[in-house]
Amino acid sequence: MSKGTVVLAYSGGLDTSCILVWLKEQGPVGQIRPREVFIEDLRAEFVEHFIWPAVQANAVYEDRYLLGTSLARPCISRSLVDVARREKAHFISHGATGKVRPDCSCFFFQIIAPWRIPEFYNRFKGRLDLMEYAEKHGIPVPVTPKAPWSMDANLMHISYESGILEDPKSHAPVDLYLMTKNPEEAPNAPDVLEITFRKGVPVKVTNLKDATSKDAALDIFLYLNEIGGRHGVGRIDIVENRFIGMKSRGIYETPGGTILLQAHLDIETFTMDKEVRRIKQGLSVKFSELVYNGFWYSPECDFVRHCIQKSQENVEGTVQLSVFKGQVYLLGRESPKSLYNEELVSMDKQGDYDPCDASGFIRINAVRLREYHRLQGLSSPKN
Amino acid sequence: MSKGTVVLAYSGGLDTSCILVWLKEQGPVGQIRPREVFIEDLRAEFVEHFIWPAVQANAVYEDRYLLGTSLARPCISRSLVDVARREKAHFISHGATGKVRPDCSCFFFQIIAPWRIPEFYNRFKGRLDLMEYAEKHGIPVPVTPKAPWSMDANLMHISYESGILEDPKSHAPVDLYLMTKNPEEAPNAPDVLEITFRKGVPVKVTNLKDATSKDAALDIFLYLNEIGGRHGVGRIDIVENRFIGMKSRGIYETPGGTILLQAHLDIETFTMDKEVRRIKQGLSVKFSELVYNGFWYSPECDFVRHCIQKSQENVEGTVQLSVFKGQVYLLGRESPKSLYNEELVSMDKQGDYDPCDASGFIRINAVRLREYHRLQGLSSPKN
Amino acid sequence: MSKGTVVLAYSGGLDTSCILVWLKEQGPVGQIRPREVFIEDLRAEFVEHFIWPAVQANAVYEDRYLLGTSLARPCISRSLVDVARREKAHFISHGATGKVRPDCSCFFFQIIAPWRIPEFYNRFKGRLDLMEYAEKHGIPVPVTPKAPWSMDANLMHISYESGILEDPKSHAPVDLYLMTKNPEEAPNAPDVLEITFRKGVPVKVTNLKDATSKDAALDIFLYLNEIGGRHGVGRIDIVENRFIGMKSRGIYETPGGTILLQAHLDIETFTMDKEVRRIKQGLSVKFSELVYNGFWYSPECDFVRHCIQKSQENVEGTVQLSVFKGQVYLLGRESPKSLYNEELVSMDKQGDYDPCDASGFIRINAVRLREYHRLQGLSSPKN
Amino acid sequence: MSKGTVVLAYSGGLDTSCILVWLKEQGPVGQIRPREVFIEDLRAEFVEHFIWPAVQANAVYEDRYLLGTSLARPCISRSLVDVARREKAHFISHGATGKVRPDCSCFFFQIIAPWRIPEFYNRFKGRLDLMEYAEKHGIPVPVTPKAPWSMDANLMHISYESGILEDPKSHAPVDLYLMTKNPEEAPNAPDVLEITFRKGVPVKVTNLKDATSKDAALDIFLYLNEIGGRHGVGRIDIVENRFIGMKSRGIYETPGGTILLQAHLDIETFTMDKEVRRIKQGLSVKFSELVYNGFWYSPECDFVRHCIQKSQENVEGTVQLSVFKGQVYLLGRESPKSLYNEELVSMDKQGDYDPCDASGFIRINAVRLREYHRLQGLSSPKN
Lengths: 383, 383, 383, 383
Description:
4 copies of one chain form a homotetramer.
Chain A: E1 6-8, H1 14-25, H2 43-57, H3 68-86, E2 91-93, E3 110-112, H4 118-121, H5 127-136, E4 150-153, E5 158-161, E6 191-198, E7 201-207, E8 213-214, H6 217-230, E9 235-241, E10 247-253, H7 255-271, H8 274-292, H9 299-311, E11 317-324, E12 327-334, H10 342-345, H11 355-375
Parallel strand pairs in A: 1-2, 2-3
Antiparallel strand pairs in A: 4-5, 5-10, 6-7, 6-11, 7-8, 9-10, 11-12
C-alpha cells in the first residue's frame, strides 16, 4: 500500500474501531488526526434523495424486501466521497465483510476493505480476536452485551441477521424488534391517516384521530415510522438472494416505508394509465435490483430513476388508510388527476360507452385464438 | 338469430333468470327443456387446475389483486363448453355486461350476451325493468333485499363493487365482508400453521395449536379459508385497470389465497435459484395479466403455464407461519432442496469462500462505471 | 348518422373516390364543397417527428419490419385531426378496411369507416362493384391497369401485399419493386457513406466517393433513399402478425431506413453504456409494438418515446459504411463520447486493469452455480 | 498450489504451448505424460447441442453478434470437464486472458488461468517474451507469420480482434476474412436454397440449382457454411459490450449461421402464435446474454433453453431463400402447421370475419385513450 490519506466510514462499533487502529499500524496510513472526525446529519437527504425515489418506484426486492439497508448505502457513500474529495484523500476504507452486498459507489477511490484482505481476516478470525486486540490497544468498545445476531439500523429500517438467525427455520425471538411493537401488544384501535401525494411523493400526512399533521419530508417519514411502529407494521422474515449469489436470511422492520408503499401503490394505480404503469413496473423491478446490488451510482440507475420520475408527473391525490395490528388498510382515495371515471364505469349508467363494442372487441381478440385451435383440430361441433 | 340449442350460464340471480325467459321469447331459441339443468361441483377442479397454477405463479394483478374472479371464469367456461359440446348446442349465453372483463374462453361457440345486444339493454335500463319483467312472467326472484353494491362469490374470494362503492373515496361499510372477520374482532391469539409444498403446490397443512391436518387439495384450501377468515386475512380495497381500459374500484377478500401467496413466495425464494426466479417472476406478471384479461385458454397462457410449472420442480419444503389480526407472518422454513447454505453465508465461518474474490468482483463490476464517469469528467481528485 | 362536416382522408384511388360520392349519397353529409381540398407537404414533419424517433429506437417490428406504413399513419392522422379541428368537422372518414391495422389516433372524432359498415361492404363486394359505381356516378378513376397486388407508398417505404402475394409461398415478381434496384443489376462498386449523429439522429451524411453532402433532415433521408435504392438495399419478404390477430404476408422496401438502422445501431452501441442499452432495447421492442398497433398517440407511447429520447443524449459520433448489392457494411466509427477505451481493452497493454480481478469475479459468479450443482449431486470428483 | 493432475485446454498456439511448459515448471504439476493428449471431434455435438438451440432462439447478442465464440466455449468446457473427471484431475487450465469473457463452465474444478496470475503475466509482458521462452525451452511454435490481429476460428465462425483492429475507426483489411468470399468477388448469380425445419431446427437443405441435398445436422451446417461462404454472407464489424464491462471491437463472419437465422425467423413467425412469439423473444434476449456471459451451464440457462424448446414444437415447414452477394433473401414459405389463413387475411374474401367487429375493437381500445386526453383537456371541438 502506498502512503496517503484514508477516509474511514466509522460506525463506532467493534469492527471499525479495530480497523481504525489497524490501519494506523499498517504504516502507510500515517498519523490519525483526531480533528478529522466528520459527523453529518444525512437524515433529510436520505429521505428526499433516496427513500422518496424508492417510494415512487414501489421499490421492493424479490417481492418482499423494502431495501432499507440498500438505500442507505449510496447515501453514506455520497457523503464519504464528498469528505474524501474535500480532504484530498487517496483511500476509502470500510468495515463491510466479503459476504455482504458489495457496493460499487466509491469506485473513484482505492478501497481498503480489511475484511477482504488476507492479512486482516486471517488475523482476526472472530469476535474474540477483535476484543483482545481492542483491549491490547486501549480501544474503547461497546459495553452492551452482544446480541446473538447482528443488526443494522437506520432511519428507514432495522435489519437483523446472522448468529442464531442463520438457521432459517428458527423463529425470531419475541424481543428482537426495536422499531416496531409486537402486533399482539399494539393498540386495540386503529389510527386513520390521510396522506397526500404530489409527483409521486408524500407532501402531507394527517392523523384523522388527533389532527396531527406533518408536511416536511423528514417529519412525514418520522411520523409514519412512529405510527407504523406503534401498530407493529412492516415486520418481515425472509430468505433473500444476495448479489454475490448466496441465499441469506434476514428479518426486517420498516414501519413508515411499509405504509408509504401501500399508499403510493394506491394513488399511482388511481392516477396512472394502465399501460404506462405496466412499463413503469418493469422499470421498478430493475430499479430495485440495481439498488440492492449497489448500483445506485450507475448510468443505468440514473436512466431508470429518470424514467420512473417522469412517470410520476400526474401521481397526485390523497389516500385514507388505517393502521392496525401490523396491517395497513386502504380505505379510499381521491385525486384531481385520476383517470377513474365514475360515470363510465358505472353499472347503472351507460354513459358514452356502447356495450356492442365489447362484442367486437372480443371477437377480434378471438381471431387469433380461433386460428390456433382450428389448427389443433379442436374446433367446436358447430364449426 | 338462427335456431339452435342455447346453453346458458345460469346463476339463479335476477339477471340470468330474466335472460332465460327473454331468450325463450326470441323465438329462435325454441322450447326450454327443464330436464336440462346441469349443476356440477367444480370445487376440486377449481382448486387443482386453476388456483394451484396461480399459487405456483405468485399470481397478483397490478401488485395487489389475487385474481379470484378471473380464475373462476375459465373453470366455469370449461364446464360450460363441455356441456355445450355434449348437448350439441349452437350458442352459449351469459349475463355478463359490456363493462366487465370480456372472456375469450368460449370462442368456439356463438355467444349470446344480452347485455351487449341493443334489443336487450335498451329494453332493460335498470334493475326495476328486470323486476317488472320478472313479475310479469312469473319469474321467481331472490327475495333478500338487494345490497347497495354487487358481489361475486366463489370458493376463492368474494368481490364487491359498484353501487355505493363506485365512489372511490367512500369507505367500505363495516358489514360488507362475508368471508372474513373484522380484524378488530378477530381472536387475540394467532394460529400457527405449517404448510408443506411439493412442486410448488401445497400438499399438507397442519395447525400447530390443535394438530388439525389436511392433505387433499380442496380440504387444504377450505381449511386455509377457514383460518384466514377467522383472523380477517386478505381484505383489500383497490382501484384496478380493467382489460377494456376503464379504472374500476373493487373490494376483495381472499383469505386462503393470501396465506398461500405468502407461504409460496417464501418456499420458492428459499429453493429456487435467483436468476431463474427473476425470469420466472417476469413470466408470472404476464400470466396474471393474461388470466385477468380472460386469456386462460390461449397459446401464450398455455406456454407461460408450462414454463412456470417447469420452474417449480424443486419448490419443495415446509414453512411455518402465524395468522393474526389480518396479517400473515412467516416464522421459519426448511427444505431438502434449498439452495440456502448456512455454512457459506455464515459470518462466523469462512467456509469455501475467499473474501478476496469480492474485491475482484467489485472491481470488475466497476470497470464500466469508471469509464462512464471518466467520460463525464467526473473523475476523483486522485485519478 | 347525424348531420355534420366530414373530413375524408382522400388518396385519389378508386376506394376513396367512391367513398367520397357514397358519403354524399348518405344524406347527412350534405354538400361537398370543392374548395375544401387540403393538400399538405408533410415530408419534413414525417422525417423529423416520426422517422427520427424510430431511428433512435432502432424500431423493428417482429425482428424484421421497419414500420414504414405504421409510422406514416400517425403523421397523416395528426394532419387530418388538425384539418378537422380547423374546419369544426364532426366526422373523420377513411378507406381502411376492417382487416388492416386499426388506428386509434383519431379517437376524438366519430369515425366513418365505410369498409366496416355493412351498408357499404355488402353493396361493394369487390373491385368490379366499385368500378361500376364509379362509372355510373362519373367518378374519374385511375386508368393504369391494376397490378395483381396492392401497394402503399410513402417517403419511407413501399409495401406490397394481397392479390397474388397472399399465397405465402409464391415468390415476389421481379418487377414488383419500385423504390429499389434489383441487387443483381445494382452497380458493381459500393458507395461509401459517412453519417454523423447527434442525440441519436443523423445530422449529416457525406458520400466519400463524390463528396455529396446533406445536412437537413429531409435531405439526408431522401439522399439515403437514393443511395439505398440504387444499391437495392432494404428489401424484405415476411409474414407478420397484425394487431387484430391475423398473419399476413407483406413485402417491403425501405432503402434509407435500412441504412440508418445499421448506422444507428453501431453508433449507439459505441457510445451507450451496456446496461442502459439493455433497458432501452426492451423499451424499443415495446415502442415498435405500440407504433405497429396504432398507439402512437397514447400515454404509454409518449412515455416510451420520452425514455428513449433520454437514452440518446450521448449517442453522438460518425460511422463509415459501404452500401453494395443490397447490403450495408459497417466499416468504422468514431465518437467524442464513446465509452470505448482502446487502452483498457487492448490485449497488449495492461492499463488500469488487474487480471487477477477477473478470477475473483468469476469465482463470485460461480458461488451460486456451485450451490446449485452441489444440490443436484453433480459435484466434481474433487469436491 | 497443491499437487495434482492438471488438464490443459491446448490449442497448439504460442500461448498454450508456453503454458504447458510453464505449468510443468511450477512444481506441483509434476510430470507431463505425453500419452494423455486427447483430441476429440466435437463437431456434430457442437452443431446439435449448441448451434441448434441458438437457431431455435434466434440468438443474437446486442442485435448483431451471432455468438460463434460463445457457443463453442461450453462445448469445449464440457469435453474438458469430461476428460478431467475421467482422469480424476484436480485442476483445469486454459490460456484465456483476464480481459476476455470469463467462463463459468468449469466451476467444479480449481482453475489455473496463467494470464490472470501475477507470476505469469508479470513475466510474460508480451508476445516477444513468450517467443523467447519458447525458444529457450525448445517449444515448437507456429511458423506462420503472425497477422497484426488475433483470430478465433471454429465450425460456426471466425472472429478477428485486437492488434490493428483495436482502433474502432480503422477499416478491416480486405484480406482479413478466411471463411467468406468478398461479396464484390462473389458469383453474379444467386444460389436458391430450400430449408426444411422440424421443431425449430433444420432437418434438410436442398440447393434448387443443382439438387444437392443434405439431411444430417453436421452436413447441413457445413453445406450452409459453404454456400454462405461462397456468396460472402455473414460479415459484420461491430463494437460489443463484454461481460466484464469493456467495449471491444470485433469482426465476425458467420456464413451458415446467418442463413439459418433468417430462415428460422421466417418459419417461426409463420407458424408461431404472435403472443407466444413475443414472450419467447424476451426469453431469447436473455438466452443470448447468458450464452455471451459464459452461463450456458447455469440453472437459468437450463430453464430458458427448456422454455424456448417448448415454444418450437410447431415450428415446422419449408422456406425458400436466395443467397447472393452477401445477402439472404426470403422468397417464400409453406408449412402444415402455419397459423396463416389465406382466406381470413384476404382482401377479396370476407370469410368468417365481420368488419364491424374492428370498429368495436378500436372503440374499446380507445376508451382508455379518451379518458387520458379528457383529463389533459385535449378533447376535440365536438366533445
